[in-house]
Structures are given as structure tokens and as C-alpha cells.
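Batch manifest, entry 17 of 40.
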Amino acid sequence: MEFLSDTVVLSRMQFALTACIHMLWPTLTTGVGIYLVIIEGLWLKTRNPEYYYHARFWAKLYALNFGVGVATGIPMEFQFGTNWAPFSEAVGNFFGSIIGFEASWAFMLEAAFLGIMLFGWERVNPAIHYLSTILVAIGANLSTVWILTASSWMQTPAGGEMVNGKFVVHDYFQVIANPFMAKSVLHMFLATLETSLFVVGGISAWYILKNRHPAFFSKSFKLALAAVIVIAPLQIYVGHLSAEQVYHYQPAKLAAMEAQWNTIPGGQSANWSLLALPNNQAEKNDWEIVIPNALGYILEFKEKLSEPVLGLKEWKPEDRPRLVGVVYYSFRTMVGIGFLLVGLMFGSVFYWLLGKLSQEKITQQRWLMRAWMFAAPLGFIAIDTGWIVRCVGRQPWTLYGQIRTVDSASHIPASNVLVSLTGFTVTYILLLIAYIYFGSRILRRGPNFDLPVPGIEVSKPAIDTAAGEFVPDERPVEAQQ
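Output type: C-alpha cells
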């Protein structure tokens, strides 16, 4: 229990806790925001009331995610001043600007138009409302851009130099467009989209299994599946490109990701470790299951490596990641989930082509609906483990190669950090419980088909067309009497 008296370790634990839990909600706001833009656009184009009711229903979940995301996100920024003050002082010339951009450009844009999106359906012109939905989605995704820009710069610092212990910016464009930035933003953007689509599909599958409005939710299920057909394989490819960047810019992290202790010379083939038990003290893997000659195909799409893959022994123990097992298995968890979701996508497409996802037959595909329900939370796990690889694999550096983590933490008593860590743990657990409670209420109530559809005059809110299915009565008022 020595870590309880280590300020640096406790500060890292607190940031990891708040970041991993907070990330659950921006993931959905960024992805579901784009989904709402598509759904509302379809309603404006087709005037099909089903799309209108979809927009109203999913907007409720968006609002809940936004609220909890704000509550969990604010403490993260304060930690830079409380637990990581030396780091903030050293890089504040750039880092403070980026965090400010995220708050003033992205968060304020999202917050300013969220009220119109939620409550302006019958109060503003449909075009104005749609514009508000678009701006909310842009704001949510701009947050991702700025946060990933800051994180990528910590991985591959560029555009300046350290002078007397402080980072001096010479070229803001180079700082922002650092080597990791573009692919990191794209990788995270696709991750939020894919996760959100599987959540939408999983919730829709739950309603279909319950036989609650199956025709209504089969539409959202198939729309999510159609998007996943493109997003899921593309995410695998972009993830590979990101790993290539690690190969070139952070070889110590790659060595930890692969539990590779000894250097593999260029010009020869190498085995790829599928599973292993890394031993930091002995600097070897106690056991491993390997795929012969596969590492070259994974890194370069060919058997023999053109460049050497450096092993962890090339660095002193204090200059390389210490938690090799954490990085190793986090990476495999992320990749494994990615391929699992692609497999589910292909299976679902096969059923679709066989005509088994029609409104008449979709309720019979119970195992497929259960599979989508099981897959709904997997994207969150993949994102969190991906960030663990990104941040734990960067150690022992906060700013890669320039500022060590041990020099970045505030000089405060460990007991202070332990108290705040305990408080944050309790608070975040309570917020998670509250989110589950209110989210469950939204799901139990389901979509509200009694809401009037703008532009459609009805005297009765709905007609019963099938068991568990209600759609608006669009007949002229005279025909409804």
C-alpha cells in the first residue's frame, strides 16, 4: 500500500478515474449529436412523422448525457491547477489556450443552442431548429478536436522548445498540427460514432425484444446498422494508421503494446504475441502465445520488417513504461472489441440480406437483438482502454521526451490527494447511479407519440395499427371523426 503515500501515483489515479468515467458521456454527445442531425434532416426532407418522433426521443438521451458530461468534466480541468500545477506552469502558453478554445468555441456553442434544440420544436421555424441541432453537434465535436489536439501535442510536442523550464511557442500552427493530431482526431471521431451507433442499435434491439413499437425501432436499428457498415471497418484501418505512428514516433510505447523486450532487426520476420504475461523485473514474458511471422504483416503489411522494432531493453527502466502488462492487455482489449463489432456488423448484414430484418421478421431474431444489446457498452470499454494505451504507454513522460510525470505533479501532501480521490470516487459513482436511474426512466417510458407533429393538423394523437405500435393519424381532420 505504499502508493497511498505517493502524491504522483495518487494524482495519476485521480486523473485516470475522472477521465475514464467522464469520457462515457462526451462519447455519446458527439456521436448521437450527428445522429440527431441525420434524423431531423430526414424528417424535414420526407415529413415522415416517425423521424420526428425519433428525433424527440433520442434528444432526451442527448440532454441527459450533456448534463452529466458537464458535471464530470469540470473537475478534470481544475486538476491541472491543483494536482498538476508545475506542468500547467511549464506548458500554459499553449495548453491554456487550447483548453480555453474548447470551453469558449466548443462548449459554449453547444450549450447556447442546446435549449433551442430541446425546447424550440414548436417555438421556432423548423429551419432554425435544424440549424440549432447542427450547431450543437458541431460544438460537441469541436470539443473532441481541441482535447485531442492537446493530447496529441503531449504525445508529439512540436512548434516550440523548452526555455528555462517553460515551453515557448514559435509556431502555433505547428503546435496544433503536430504529427499525432490528424489521425488521433479521426480515430476518436470514428470511435465516438461507432460507439454511439451501437448504443442506438442496442437500445432499439431492447425495444424490439420487448415487442414495444418494433416497427418504429426497426427503423433506428437499420439506420444504425447501415452507418456501422461504413464506420466499423474504417475504424480498424484508421487504428492501424495510428499504430504506425506509434511505431515511428514512440517506439518504447510500441514495445510495451507488444510486450517486446528484445530488439528485432530490420530485414527479418518476427512473431506476434497474441497473449503473454509480461514480467517487468525479469524483463521477459513468463509465457506467451505467438502467431509466427505475423508482426511484419501487422505493422507494414509484409512479412519482413523494413525497420527494426526496438525492444524495451533498449531503454533504462526509468525511461520506459513501467506498467507493461496494463498497456499490453489494454491494447488487445481495444483491438479485440473493434474486430468483435465488425464481426457483429457482418452477421447483421447477412441477416439483412436474407430479409430477416423486415418489420414482420425482426422480432424473431432474438439472438441477434441480444447480441446488439451486449455490444452496446463495448465501445466505451474500447475507448477507455485505448486512452489507457495512449497515456500509460507515454510514461514516464507528461510531455513526451521533455517533461517527466514525476516533475509535473504538485508538491502537496499525499493525504490531500487521497481525500480528493476518495471524494471524486464517491461523487462520480453517485452521478453514474443517477445517470442509470434517469436513463432507465427515459427508456421505460419510451417515445411519446402524443406530441403534436409540426405542420400536421390532427385531432387525435395516434391510431393503433398493430400490437404495441402507434403511429400518428395523418388523415384530414374530417376523416378522423
